[in-house]
Amino acid sequence: MEKRTVSLLTAFCLLMIFCFPTYAVENQEMIRNSNGEIVMKDGEVVPKNVSPSEQLRELKEKGFSSQQIAEAKEKLSGQFIPEPQISTRASWVYHSPQITFYRQIDKVHCIHACTQMTLKYFGITISQRDLEGIDKLPTSPTGTNITYVPGVLNSMQKNNAYVFINGTNCSREIMQNHLYSSIVNYDAPAIIAIAIDEAAYWPYYDNVGSPGHGLVISGATIQKTEFEVTDPISGFVGGGIDMSKTPQKYTTYSTKIYYVINKNGMGYAF
Q: Is residue 215 within 8 Å of residue 191, measured between CB atoms?
């Protein structure tokens, strides 16, 4: 009788494994945050829901003012944001004070370092380790999805209502306007996420070892044809990567920025 019971139990277990494998795998491989949202699946970060209505709803919940929410709505509209007049004698505009540089602590913490730099600009000091986690910036072996950045920034500061813009949903002219406005209108550093599978389109990245990367916009020409970026991978050496010759800050053309954020769902937070 005991042998028969064991045999029946074994048969039942095999039936569950072979007939219902998906249910078991999903429960093991899906990770949710405290709000019940799926943030990890199959070991990779799941992009956050960043529809305009959802982003505006979150801003209201986080207590942003009606004026800031109106500004966020304007950012998400896909229209040009009016720019203040700048002296024609100035060829470049920069964030002031300058962006404080932080080197990423490993090859997948570029977004964490960019978020750390941005919060420091607002007078908030935090470590990259403290920005980790399923309720902040979930991280996988290939990095962190930038769609989580606005939520973290908006939870920790109220100087600017950050939104995410998908690079495939905007024109180069709108992107230029947005990144320029992050300096002259909002005084809030923008973070860009770029695809670097083609190193020829981005300087210094012959051996970065990752399909994507995050950087902070720290300056722009008044014509918006060139931008200065602050690169958290500058000086990073480890894991088969040597970026010791990469400067902390350098300039690149807006056409190149648009190309590398217009691929693979990349974009920017501003």
A: yes
Mean pLDDT of the chain: 86
3-state percent breakdown (helix, strand, coil) of the chain, nearest 5: 35, 20, 45
Handedness of CA 8, 13, 18, 19 (dihedral sign): positive
- pLDDT tens, 214-261? 999 999 999 999 999 999 999 999 888 888 889 999 999 999 999 889
Q: How far apart are CA 103 and CA 113, in angstroms?
A: 6
Q: Report the pLDDT value the prediction gives residue 3, as an integer from 0 to 100.
A: 44
pLDDT, mean of residues 98-124 = 96
Q: How far apart are the first and last CA of the chain?
A: 69
Stretch 152-173: mean pLDDT: 96
What confidence tens digit (pLDDT) does each residue in 25-45 have?
Answer: 344 478 888 878 888 887 788
Query: Per residue in 82-111, is it b (16+ CB within 10 Å) or e — as a string?
Result: eeeeeeeeeeebebeeebebbbbbebbbbb
* Cβ neighbourhood burial of 178 (10 Å; 0-12, 13-18, 19+): buried
- Cα separation, 268 vs 161, whole angstroms: 14
Asked whether the beta carbons of 29 and 41 are under 8 A apart, the reply is yes
Paired tokens of 232: 């958290």
Residues 33, 115, 233, CA angle at the centre, nearest 5°?
A: 115
Q: What is the DSSP string of 76-109?
A: HTTSPPP-----TT--EEE-SSPPPP---SSTT-
- The residue type of 263 is K
According to the model, what pLDDT value does residue 26 have? Answer: 40
Where do we find the tokens 């997948």?
Answer: 108
Name the nearest CA neighbour of 210 among 99, 111, 90.
111
